[in-house]
Amino acid sequence: MVEDCSLPSKDVNGAKSHKKYPMVLRTVVLVLVLISSVYICSICLKQKGIMIRSSVMRVKVMDEPCRNPSIEQSELPYIHFPKPTAYSRNECTCTPVRYFAILSMQRSGSGWFETLLNSHINISSNGEIFSVRERRSNISAIMATLDKVYNLDWYSSAAKNECTGAVGFKWMLNQGVMQNHEGIVEYFKRRGVAAIFLFRRNLLRRWVSLLANSHDRDAKQLNGTHKAHVHSRHEADVLAGYKPTIDVAQLMVDIEQTSKWSADAVQYFNGTRHVVLYYEDLVRNQTKVMDVLDFLRLPHRKLNSRHVKIHTRPLSYQIENWNVLSKSLKGTEFESFLQSDYQK
Ligand SMILES: *[C@@H]1O[C@H](CO)[C@@H](O)[C@H](O)[C@H]1NC(C)=O
Ligand SMILES: *[C@@H]1O[C@H](CO)[C@@H](O)[C@H](O)[C@H]1NC(C)=O
Ligand SMILES: *[C@@H]1O[C@H](CO)[C@@H](O)[C@H](O)[C@H]1NC(C)=O
Ligand SMILES: *[C@@H]1O[C@H](CO)[C@@H](O)[C@H](O)[C@H]1NC(C)=O
Ligand SMILES: *[C@@H]1O[C@H](CO)[C@@H](O)[C@H](O)[C@H]1NC(C)=O
């Protein structure tokens, strides 16, 4: 069309006709040209309209089968129907998927907690994926990683792939969460990700666990390998055999820092759907674990973990300089940390 209209030879012809033909004929030709151009334009517009409408229809057709009227309106931002790039969800295409992240700190029971969740048929928690530095080097790298996990394109032994009902991972606050909290909170709100905070109440026990774990990293007490988590009582007893000497000043710095981080983190994520859990409560009370399944809107099931708790004895047996330490904590707000809190 464009070519026809702008050919210079036509212009030359047009100039000639100017002299030869009378006014009437020229007017008729002009009118014909006008009519035909209006006609062509209207066809063009109609075709465009059809194209726009058909693409709208296509999107609708693809989403339609996954509408589930039994899901409340308020839950809609939290359910998703991911379309993984590498495989098809098959018969579970329309099984809604919820997104979560376990936000915690080292030696707070999150390893145990995650294996507990993964024993549920509908949950895939993919481990500590941000322990790899490149994945958290900036907010774009973080978001790309999150996209992959929540699109069910992340491969880990925990992945239940096509039929998963809740997908997430474990994220330590010192793995880029605190530094990038603004972008992460924005992402969680935008994509309806639920935050599960898991903290430990007894920060003295956490400190003992940190020191023992750090000692084993060098000592490699289990046949020359370092283990952060164990699966037998025997292994647990070997690791618990180490009694750290506690520097009270260092302990105070850690308690202060840990308390501040947990409070700040909960504050940052206040505008997202979240729950705050304490390790001690989960260990003592199975109902609290079921509360987590309610939070994820998943059916109750008996959950289990192969993890065996390492430090089970009263702290007086597990700290080398117990007398000094207990004297310095007596009368402070941290005195309760000295009591054994697992024995029922
Ligand atoms: C973010 O980090 C990734 C991985 O380290 C890097 O490839 C990318 O260039 C970084 N992007 C920006 C905007 O800094
Ligand atoms: C849980 O998994 C089972 C088996 O894959 C599936 O039939 C069921 O619909 C799932 N439930 C939820 C809530 O995802
Ligand atoms: C070390 O390995 C031996 C033989 O494989 C095994 O019997 C023993 O229990 C292991 N010890 C520990 C502490 O895991
Ligand atoms: C979170 O926000 C609510 C109100 O929006 C407020 O009542 C609550 O104290 C906040 N919690 C924290 C931990 O900041
Ligand atoms: C266990 O947790 C449930 C719900 O979180 C609570 O109602 C109950 O009182 C707790 N039981 C004990 C013994 O603490």
UniProtKB/TrEMBL annotation:
Domain of life of the organism encoding this protein: Eukaryota
Alphabetical list of InterPro entries matching this protein: Nod_factor_sulfotransferase, P-loop_NTPase
Keywords from the UniProt entry: Membrane, Transmembrane, Transmembrane helix
This protein's record includes keyword Membrane: yes
Cleavable signal peptide: none
Residue stretches spanning the membrane: 23-45
Gene3D superfamilies hit by this protein: P-loop containing nucleotide triphosphate hydrolases (3.40.50.300)
Keyword Membrane: yes
PANTHER family xrefs: OS01G0784600 PROTEIN (PTHR32175:SF9), PROTEIN, PUTATIVE, EXPRESSED-RELATED (PTHR32175)
Annotated protein name in UniProt: Sulfotransferase
Organism: Vanilla planifolia (Vanilla)
